Amino acid sequence: MFRNLIQIVGATTLLIASAQTAQATTYKDVNLGGVNLSAWCQKTHGKAFKAKLIARNAGGWTCQQSAGNRRPIFVSKACKLQYGSRSYKAKALNWSNPYSWRCIGRKAVVTMRGVNLTPWCKKQYGNAFKAKLIAKNAGGWTCEQSAGNRRPILVSKACKLQYGNRAYKAKALNWNDPYSWKCLLR
């Protein structure tokens, strides 16, 4: 039961809603480091309490003053105490190892970037081709060798060429702005 309590307490859900911007971000987990459980026990329950291991697994920790005076540990709260707002959850890297608790934070990762169309034109149609704007909107791009020799651009493929498999879609954020094309990245 104590193991289930630790799992429930240690699991924190973070919902991130973001508006579409020219440079969108998402977040990935970052290991901030270990956690001082005794410091949390003392701050929460008093100076006489210390973290005590009573079972040989990650859920085996308790705050203890004496064998008859034990209190539960909330590892995610201990992480908040130690790392402040940078920590959003606690994670046991190996449930069989009671010393594997880590505090987890979030790191912003850019998930939308601009695209350079000319390299795709050159790769697709030959070195004499380059990206050329022929209309003042997002659909106004073409690959051009000369005014009479124009070919279509596939912006999503240009994104793949530039960013590899991380790119999964191209999007014009504003159809009236030919420079608003962005690559959405994983």
Radius of gyration: 27 Å
Strand content: 25-35%
What characteristic shape results from the CA principal axes?
rod-shaped
- Describe the largest sheet: 3 strands, antiparallel
For the biggest β-sheet, the strand order reads 1-6-5
Please tally the helical runs, counting DSSP H or I stretches of 4 or more residues.
5
What's the number of extended β-strand segments?
12
Mean pLDDT across all amino acids:
85
Q: What is the helix/strand order?
A: HEHEEEHEEEHEEEHEE
Spans where pLDDT lies below 50 across 5 or more residues:
1-22
| Count of the domains | 2
> Which structural class do you get from the secondary structure elements?
alpha+beta
Describe the structure concisely for a colleague:
The chain has 186 residues and is α+β, with helices and mostly antiparallel strands. 24% of the residues lie in helices and 35% in strands.
Protein topology:
Layout: H1 2-10, E1 25-33, H2 37-45, E2 50-53, E3 61-66, E4 69-71, H3 75-83, E5 87-92, E6 101-110, E7 112-114, H4 118-125, E8 130-133, E9 141-146, E10 149-151, H5 155-163, E11 167-172, E12 181-185
Antiparallel strand pairs: 1-6, 2-3, 3-4, 5-6, 7-12, 8-9, 9-10, 11-12
Helix pairs in contact: 2-3
